[in-house]
Each structure stands twice: as structure tokens, then as C-alpha cells.
Amino acid sequence: MTEPSHRAARPASRPESAKHSQDWPTLDKDLGRMSLIESAAIYTSRPLIGVGISLLFIAVVAAIVAFATGGLQGTLTIALAAAFAAYMALNIGANDVANNMGPAVGANALSMAGAIAIAAVCETAGALLAGGEVVSTISSGIIAQSEITGSVHFVQAMMAAMLAAAIWINTATWMGAPVSTTHAVVGGVMGAGIAAAGFGTVNWATMGTIAASWVISPIMGGVIAAAVLAFIKWKIMYVPDRIAAARVWLPVLIGVMAGTFACYLALKGLRQVIHLDLREAALIGLGAGLLCWLAAVPLVRRQSRGMENRNASLKVLFRLPLVISAALLSFAHGANDVANAVGPLGAIVRALQSEETAAQMSVIPYWVLMIGALGISCGLVFFGPRMIRMVGSQITKLNPMRAYCVALSAALTVILASWLGLPVSSTHIAVGGVFGVGFFREWYVARRASTGAGPKRAAKPMPIEERQRRKLVRRSHFMTIIAAWLVTVPASALLSALCFLLIAALFG
């Protein structure tokens, strides 16, 4: 009997030891679950970090401006307007900069971190070194200030325009639609002017040309980008010796890029430094293009030495020109579009000064440019990656050659539009270039599939149903972006009118 009782006693003691031995694995599992919960909380709260820092940036800007302008008339008004301008600049950085860096990131020529770093530096440099468009462009080019009775109503109209444009761009960024910040500001100024003094205050001729640019900008950008891509396919990609062709034509394309961007920067980015007409800018571009072409010949020859006769080698050769063009676009964007963020603020500061001071203030003050430059950079860092991915990879697939076509198209289109006297949007041009490249690829692939022609001949023509299934441009993004473009000015105008009525009621 003792043996069974001994055996019975041992199982009675084992559950206690087993209980202790199982406590540690259970605790490890609990710790693992807690780690997953913490990781999920950090991931979900990451956007809130950007929101928090952005709110802190807006508050700091308002406080610094209030302290710095303590001796000026309307200090509180200027501080509040500076907060609105900071909010606007954040949204421009979140939405508009993607047009410059998106193609380079989508083509894997730049990492997301590298693109953000280059864009932040170039945008800030462009805004501070070459920004500061004449204030009257925004304050009197769209609405007649003389039609608005009293400087108080004009100041309120400019504040409403900034706030409404920022809210609309914020909404468009949330929807994943790249929109024109210029058109948002124009719509905001128009809506506030109508609310303040009626429809007669609006320069309808200017608004008509802006409406025409909705159609002209993306079509021009798309056609030029498709034409450049067709040239690259014809002369470089689909020839027996791709490397030899690249040694001939890539320096030419680099020269064209350098000349175009030199002319582009002379017209759009360096207006505060030097005033040039189109002919003078074209001569500068021609000289820069020739010099860069001569310098690129030995560089491309050296870089291509030992490369295989493959498209992968061409992607390597096009990578550096693409990165440089993206950086130049960011510089020009910072110089030109910083006025969208702080132009109304400059108009407010000018309106609140004495007549003698206002007459001398032909450009935006430097501290106003600082708000725009820092705000654009902060918005890009915290909110830009989503739009960069959308433009770079979610509309159509890009490689360095196609992305280079988009960048070159943006500069060429601006030059051509300036020569024709047409107002265009850099956002519409760049996104139109992406669509142009994608639709050209669709047409080219469909043509090869239907005829069996091309460098890789098909065994038989592809059926129509299969060709229709192989779409290279996402139609959902196409329709969303087009719709956002069409409603930008009306939506901004309506929001601005409501904001003006609210501001007038609160501070009137």
C-alpha cells in the first residue's frame, strides 16, 4: 500500500511545480502582447506627433510675430494672420512638394528620407534666396483693393483667403489629391473679395485665364512628357546598342535639362535677385545648356564604361540627372510658391502700415519669408510622404527614364507657357506629366500587343479583352485628381466667403 500512496503523492506535488514553470512562459507571452500593443500605439500615434509639432509651430510663430511687431499698428491682427500663414505653409509642404519629389521616389532614384532632406533644403533655399514676389500680385491682381471700403475689411479678406485656402489644401491632402496651391489662394482671395464688396471687385479677365489653365496645364505637361519618353524609347531604349546610344543622347538631354532649368529659374525663381525678360532668360538657358552638354559627354562616357547592354544600365545613367532635376524643381518651387503661403500676410502687413512705409515695401518682408520657408519644410517632413508616394507610385509605375521625362516636361511647359503668356500651375503640369507618361505607355503597349511589333515580338496579337485589362494608369486616382482640380477654386472661394463673414462677425 505504501507504493501506491507514494505514487499518488508525487502527482499532487507536480501541479505546483508545473504551475511555477508555466508562469514564465505565460509572462513572456503577456510581455510579447504588451510589446505589440505598444508598437501599435506608437504607430497609430505617429501622425499625432506631426499634428502636435505643427500646432506648436503655429503657436510659436504667432507668439514671436506678436513680440517682434509689438510697436506696430494692429499687432494682434498681424500675429493671427501669421498663424494662418504658418498653417497655409504647412499644407503647401504636405501637398505641393510631392509634385517635385514624387517621381524620383517612385523611380527608386531617391529614398523617402533622401527626398525629404533634399526637398527641405532646396525649398528653404529657394524661398529665402529668391522668394518674395511683389505683394501686389496677390493683393490687387485678383481683386480691386479700392473696391473694398477700409483697410480693416481688406485685412479680414486676406486673412479669410489664407485660412480657406489652407483648409481646402488640408482636405485635399487628406483625400490624397495633389491640388494647385496657387488656385486655392486665388479662389480664397476671390471668395473673400466677393463677400467683402460684391462680384464687381473681382478681375474676371484674370479669373478666366486661370480657369483656362485648368485644361492647358495638364495637357501641355502630359504631351511634352510623352514626347520626351517617345524620344528616349526611339533613340536610346529600343536600339541594338543602348549604351552607345546613351553616350550620344544622354549628354544632349542633360544639356536640354540644364538649359531649360536655367531659363526656368531665371523666369520663375530669381525675380527678386534680377529681373529678366524671356529673351534674356533664353540666352542664359542656351549658354548653360551648351556648357552642361560639353561637361556631360566625358562624364557619361566614364560612368557607362563596362556597363551591360540592358535597360537596367540606362536606369543607373538616368538616376543622377533625375535627382538634380528634382532638386532644381524644389528650389524653383520654394522661390515661386512661397508667395502662396505668405503673400496675403505680406499684403496685410503692408495694408496696416503708413502710406510712406507701404509704398517702400514692394516685396514680402524677410521674416514673412522665414515663416513660409520653415512651414513648407515642416509640412513636408511630417505630412509629405503620403502624397509623395501617391504621385510617385500610385498613379502609374515610374522608372528613372519616365520620371526624368516628367521633371523635364515641368520646366519645358513653364517656359512655353511664359512665351505664350498663359498662366499655368506647376502642380497641374507635374501631375499631368505623370499621367502623360502612363497613358503613352498604355498606348505603346496596346499598339505592340495588337500588331505584334516592337523589340519583343509577340507570338500572336493580344485579344482586346486582355489589352483592356492591362491598364497602366489607375483610373480611380485620375478621376479623383481631376475632380479636385475642378472644384479647387469654387471650394476655396466658398470657404473664404464663409471665413470672411465669420471673421468680420468676431472682429468687426
TrEMBL record:
InterPro entries: Phos_transporter (IPR001204). Residues 16-26 have a biased composition (Basic and acidic residues). It is found in: Membrane. Pfam families: PHO4. The keyword Chloroplast does not apply. The keyword Membrane applies. It is a multi-pass membrane protein. The chain crosses the membrane at residues 48-68, 74-93, 105-130, 150-172, 184-205, 211-232, 244-267, 282-300, 312-332, 364-383, 403-422, 428-446, 478-507. Keywords: Membrane, Phosphate transport, Transmembrane, Transmembrane helix, Transport. Its main location: membrane. Residues 1-26 are annotated as: Disordered. It comes from the Bacteria. PANTHER family: PHOSPHATE TRANSPORTER (PTHR11101). Belongs to the inorganic phosphate transporter (PiT) (TC 2.A.20) family. This is Phosphate transporter. It comes from Salipiger mangrovisoli.
